[in-house]
Amino acid sequence: MPKSIATTDIRGEMILLGTGTSVGVPAVGCGCEVCTSDNPRNQRLRASAILGLPEGNLLVDTSPDLRLQLLREKIGLVHSVIYTHEHADHVFGLDDLRLMQFYLDGPVPLYCEEIVERRIRQSFDYAFAKDESPSLVPQLELHRIGLEPLEVLGAQVTPVRLHHGEAFDVLGFRFGNVAYCTDVNRIPPESMELLQGLDVLVLDALRKTPSKTHFTIDQAVEVATQLAAKRTYFTHVAHELEYEATNAELPKGMELAYDGQRIALT
């Protein structure tokens, strides 16, 4: 292991590590205008974010692109992870955290709902096998969460219930006056209350055409207008939305997010 850990101090910031849909942008085999664009803001890895909190870096979801995302942002330390839901594009990069147990001198704390824990235990069963060498598998410490606020790495985190289609309940999170709400197509009234008075809202907006599990861009604009955050950035964006053209059509104070975007925590 390295004698010193090469990492960037991101305290006081949230970085959007990926702002793309489940297949990413460019999509494999697609020759559309967005997938072949040379504008880096049309290149979107799978959705994830990381926050520099007072006592360390909190990762939101472990996307399959996690290694590339951390290397790009020069972040060498992840102190804890919190999960929105159990889908593959938000969980399956978990093994990329295997080095962290050496840097932290112990397991990586994971905060998630029961359904996410079941997915992790099933998909990464080798991490929990008693006969595996601790140096060969991720060392994980699971913490079950619900809808009650919790303290993580010296900051209060408020889970926010969101609906991701008819079959899936997922979580968004509020960190002070910044909220992260990916993979959602309906926000119940009690959650809308929790999202009042924001400085920044990061919100799902998949494409223009309807989806059974995600907000369209028009639906996301409608919700963002109701919540009236000072700034809204749309994430989990598919290749149907070109960065510059879409932003030109959006209301003032709203725009597409992009990979590597840094947002001040307030």
Structural features, described:
With 266 residues, the chain is α/β, with parallel strands linked by helices. Helices cover 19% and strands 26% of the residues. Strands 6-5-4-3-2-1-14 form a seven-stranded mixed beta sheet. Strands 7-8-9-10-11-12-13 form a seven-stranded mixed beta sheet. The longest helix has 11 residues, at 217-227. The two termini are 35 Å apart. The mean pLDDT is 96.
Main pleated sheet: 7 strands, mixed
State which percent range the strand residues make up. Answer: 25-35%
Q: What pattern of helices and strands is seen along the backbone?
A: EEEHEHHEHEEEEEHEHEHEE
Number of helices: 7
pLDDT < 50 runs, ≥5 residues: none
Tell me the overall shape.
Answer: globular
| Main sheet: strand order | 6-5-4-3-2-1-14
Question: Based on DSSP secondary structure assignment, what is the total number of beta strands?
Answer: 14
Rounded to the nearest angstrom, the radius of gyration is: 18 Å
Helix content: 10-25%
Structural class: alpha/beta
SSE map:
Elements: E1 13-18, E2 48-53, E3 56-60, H1 66-72, E4 80-82, H2 88-91, H3 100-104, E5 108-112, H4 114-123, E6 140-144, E7 150-152, E8 155-163, E9 169-175, E10 178-181, H5 189-194, E11 200-204, H6 217-227, E12 231-235, H7 243-249, E13 254-256, E14 262-264
Parallel strand pairs: 3-4, 4-5, 5-6, 10-11, 11-12, 12-13
Antiparallel strand pairs: 1-2, 1-14, 2-3, 7-8, 8-9, 9-10
